[in-house]
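Appendix B. One record, verbatim.
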Amino acid sequence: MITLYDFDSKTKHPWNMSVWKARYSLNFKNVPYKTIWIEYPDIEPTMKKLGAQPTGLRQDGSPLYTLPLIPRGTHALQAAFRRLIESNMSSLGLLVVPELIRKVVNAPSAEYMTSHYLPNFGISDLATWTLSEEQSIAEWDKVKELLGSVHAMMKAEDKWIMGDQISFADFAVASVFETIKAVFGKDSEEWKRVVSWHDGRWDRMMTELERYSTVY
């Protein structure tokens, strides 16, 4: 059985979009797996223990280890995930990372993210930092624009990005929405707003994908 490593959280709802891509794919293929929950500081020692290779390099040249991690024995699947980890929604960072630290992740991951990620956004003190309404609108507009480029490739009657055929592209887009839902909540104004974009296409897509969103 495949073991899928994911980040633990206070809410017990998965939030990492890269891992969501893997989870959707495994569920769609009906591949048996189990999830093991870890914290950010545990990624590198866990991957080294499993003999996994770094997923990249840090700016200083040291090895970088990230999730999703599916241990050896599933090389083809790992390679596919490495090629298909796209949908670089960097515009979401300023919107979700501070809120992840404040509301979602556990203390070990919060400490790690505060020291490693917040400086990238110019945030030195999260306790006193706030995103202005003008900034928030601008960042959400960027997210809407990126999703709009996907919407523009689709016909009005298309259920999936490739038309009638579900594909990894759908899982990549859905993973973005899963992160938004995990951070802001399904009853939030943020969630209701984003799924209503582009004539409600994303709300319909997420409803269709619910059957592949089970967490094992």
